[in-house]
Design brief:
Elements (H helix, E strand, L loop, with lengths): L2 H16 L1 E5 L4 H12 L3 E5 L7 H10 L3 E3 L5 H11 L3 E4 L5 H6 L6 H18 L6 E5 L11 H14 L5 E5 L13 H19 L3 H7 L4 H12 L5 E4 L7
Parallel strand pairs: 1-2, 1-4, 2-3, 4-5, 5-6, 6-7
């Protein structure tokens, strides 16, 4: 091994040892995979679960069993600011999101994307920016996110991206296309079918010279995405990544 390679490995291991990762949205499909990947890489991991969440009793012990700590800080900026400071958080993984069905179960009304996807992300960004040593921020967004999108979901994601970019933090924005897999708790047959159809069409496009389109829109699984989110998160580059940057090699 070259000296430069050895140094890079040592620095990487040191970063992992010293890192304290706070995972918001830890009970979601990607969130669970990110918690598992962080622990697999030996990173001190704090899985945030909303107090009163129906998933706290079921998933909290499972996360503790793999060595993660469970935090139930209330969703407000002041409380999150204090938690980040108290725990010495160095990395924030913002993997939050919801569906209308889940929001209905949790009693969340109104514009759920404005309240959840943008509102909660804003709290995390503000809490991170208020630290003496601001943590690095990893935000799971979506392909097509922009502030002037016609979709409320993509508009909220675009607003969250803009808020993060303006906060002065070291950050990563991930914009995957379909995220699907047979291990998903929620049954989303339409999404799985859509991913399969899209991947098939993109493969054909690739054969016909549409390689760039294929790389941008190919689907990924939670495990594949989690590894890349953690690798990018523990790295030093900042910016947005999408498509093949987040999917299988």
């Amino acid at each position: 091994m070259a000296i430069a390679d050895s140094l890079a490995t040592t620095m990487s291991d040191k970063t992992k040892t010293e890192a304290v990762a706070f995972v918001a949205g830890s009970t979601g499909y990607v969130g669970q995979a990110v918690v598992a990947e962080l622990r697999r890489q030996g990173v001190t991991t704090i899985a945030h679960i909303r107090p009163g969440s129906s998933r706290l009793e079921r998933l909290g012990p499972a996360m503790q069993n793999i060595g993660a700590s469970v935090d139930t800080t209330e969703w407000n900026t002041a409380a999150l600011t204090k938690t980040f400071q108290r725990l010495g958080v160095t990395h924030v993984f913002c993997l939050i999101g919801t569906t209308r069905k889940q929001a209905s179960k949790e009693g969340i009304e109104g514009d759920i994307y404005e309240r959840i996807d943008f509102g909660l992300t804003s709290m995390l960004v503000e809490a991170a920016a208020d630290q003496a040593s601001p943590p690095r921020f990893v935000y799971l967004s979506s392909i097509g996110a922009k502030t002037n999108a016609s979709s409320n979901y993509l508009k909220a994601r675009g607003k969250a991206e803009a808020k993060l970019a303006a906060a002065g933090l070291s950050y990563i924005i991930a914009r995957p296309s379909f995220i699907t897999g047979s291990d998903r708790d929620e049954l989303r047959p339409a999404e799985r079918i859509g991913a399969a159809v899209a991947d098939g069409a993109l493969s054909l496009a690739g054969l016909l010279g549409g390689g760039k389109l294929k790389r941008k829109y190919q689907s990924t699984s939670a495990g594949e995405l989690a590894k890349r989110l953690v690798d990018y998160g523990l790295g030093s580059d900042s910016g947005a990544f999408e498509g093949s940057d987040l999917a299988r090699a």
